[in-house]
Each structure stands twice: as structure tokens, then as C-alpha cells.
């Protein structure tokens, strides 16, 4: 039985992760869960926002299903953790958010976000089916910033050839494996000639080794415009960390919003699956959250661990429930709660 570290998270996290767990269990997949608490609750109980026991669990399982986690805005709030450094001695490291802490500490260098239309999920578009590959370890998004003086703030955009080539290799290998045809590289190398220039060069160099996969490049602003005009023409998007963060939400909007967009963070020997959405405190604890993004993240996880059949069954059950229009959550124009929607999928899995 493969074990998974389950992080319920904050806000709507506990509701949507419970839904994903119920669906996985009904699918017959051979998975066992270890629950781990991080964030403010963990800090109050143990003094650390990510206690050593959580890292121990992940080191054992190498697999994480994570609900959204809350990080306070503004100020100089950082997540501080104690972990061994390269020389084995304990050191303190700090990050701007819990999600970034886990992505960096676990070496999860790719953020994979599939975006596609589902039946009866209202959207302005049809035929959208693309995969976003977002570099996950560097760029402005890692929050390397400082106040120069009270009126001046500075952020460092660090891009390396190694990290750029690494995510590009993952993206081209993935496209080849799943039989997709084309990758579009997003950049702003016309202005950020050194940082985005290096990103573009490094990713295009990798592309040369994959003659079967077409590739092209777009300046990020033009890419955003084309995405809202003709999203169905895109297949794979390869983006730096910050552009990837922004374009992921834009693309979620193309297919029905944040309630339906799943994600995976993948490294060489460990992976963490989480929805694109945040903690949505406005609807937390009210049985209003759409668990679909979290369930689809679980589907990605099942494929990753070789439980492709269970993944297919869940995907089909989800599409059937949406297709029958019996249980649709409020964000998608229906009136079903989180629990009723989940139960409808569980019932479909038990009696297709
Ligand atoms: P955070 O600070 O954690 O990012 P947020 O509320 O600012 O939280 P999101 O959680 O990404 O950002 O959500 C933005 C809005 O989208 C929420 O206010 C919520 O109404 C809606 N939303 C997000 N996720 C879902 C979901 N799974 N189901 C229904 N509505 C959602």
C-alpha cells in the first residue's frame, strides 16, 4: 500500500481534501493516508509552522496531497524553519509562504497545471485542453526582497540556466510521454534581456533535443492576449515562476474558474499535489467550496503513482456527475454543497 502525507490546510482546505480522500478511497486505489498539520495551528502546538514530524512523514512517503494553506500578507512575515544544511549542521531557513517552503525544501522544481473544459462547467470557451509547466524554484516569485529604505523596496529576479533547462526537459519529456504536440515558451526577453533572455535561450536549447515536439515563443503580454482570444490553439505552456503563477489563474478562468483547476509540484523523487486555488476564507466551513480542483489534483497524483485505472474511473465519475447536472456546486451555477457533490461522485464510483 503506497502511503501519502495528507495536509488538510486552512480555509476550505479541510473540506476539499476530505472530499478528495473520500473519492480516492471509493476508487479502490491502494493508498493509505498520514495526516500532517502545518501553518499557524502547527506553530501554536509545536513552535514551528512546519514541524520536523511533517518533513519526516514526507521523507517516508515522498508523496503529498495538500490543501491550500494561509500565509499572512505584507510586512516582513516569513515562514522560519530549522533544517540540516548542505554540511549536515542545523540551520534556519525562511520563506515567504508555506507552499513555497515545501516546494523549495522538497526540491519540487516543476509546477504542472492541466487546464481543460469539463461538461456543464460554464465557460466562454470550448475545446480548451492545455498543460502549463511553471518553473517552481526561482524568479521574482521566491520573494527575495528587501527594503532599501522606507520608500524603496527591491526584489531580485534570479534565473539560472540549470533550473530553466531542468523544467524544460521535464516539459518536453512529459509532452512526449502523453502524446502532445507543441510547447509555447513565455518570456519578456525584449525588456528583461538578461534574465528572461537566459530563460529563453536555455529552454530553446533544450527544445532542440525534441524534434518531435513543436515549439515556439511568445512575449508574455502577447501570450495573455492570445490565450483569451484563441485558447484552444495552445497545447503546452512553459513559463517562469511568476508568469506561471499569473497565467495559471488566467487559464483557470478560461475553463470555469479556480474551483476546477488542479496542480502538481514535482521533483526528482518527491511530488506534492494541490489545487491552484487558495484558502477562500469567504466560503470556508460553509459547505460551499467546489472540491473538483482538489479531486483532479488527486487524479494527477494517482497517475503519478501508477494508479492510472483508478484515476480514469474518478475522471469518468466526475464527468458523469457534471454531465447529468444533478450535483453542481454554486461557483458553477448549481446549488450542491461540497458534501453532496462529493457523495454523488462516490456513488458513481460504487455503482457506475
Ligand atoms: P488565499 O489568500 O489563500 O489565496 P483568496 O480567497 O485570496 O485566498 P482564492 O482562495 O484563490 O484566493 O480564491 C479567490 C476566490 O475564488 C474566493 O474568494 C472564492 O470565492 C473563489 N474560490 C476559490 N476556490 C474555490 C473553490 N474551490 N470553490 C468555490 N469557490 C472558490
Summary tags:
single chain; 352 residues; alpha/beta; Isopropylmalate Dehydrogenase; 2 domains; two-stranded antiparallel sheet; 39% helix; binds adenosine-5'-triphosphate
Structure description:
- The chain is α/β, with parallel strands linked by helices and 352 residues long.
- The chain has two domains: 1-109 and 261-352, Isopropylmalate Dehydrogenase; 124-254, Isopropylmalate Dehydrogenase.
- 39% of the residues lie in helices and 20% in strands.
- It is built from eleven helices and 14 strands.
- The chain has helices at residues 13-27, 40-46, 52-61, 98-105, 161-178, 195-207, 220-229, 241-254, 292-304, 308-324, 338-350; strands at residues 2-7, 31-35, 63-66, 79-84, 90-95, 110-116, 129-135, 145-149, 152-155, 182-187, 214-219, 236-239, 264-266, 271-273.
- The strands form three sheets. The chain has a ten-stranded mixed beta sheet with strand order 2-1-3-14-13-6-7-12-10-11, with helices on both faces. A two-stranded antiparallel ribbon has the order 4-5. A two-stranded antiparallel sheet has the order 8-9.
- A hairpin with a 2-residue loop joins strand 8 and strand 9.
- The longest helix is centred in the middle third of the chain and has 18 residues, at 161-178.
- It starts with a strand and ends with a helix.
- Adenosine-5'-triphosphate binds at residues 12, 68, 70, 258-259, 277-283, 289-290, 293, 331.
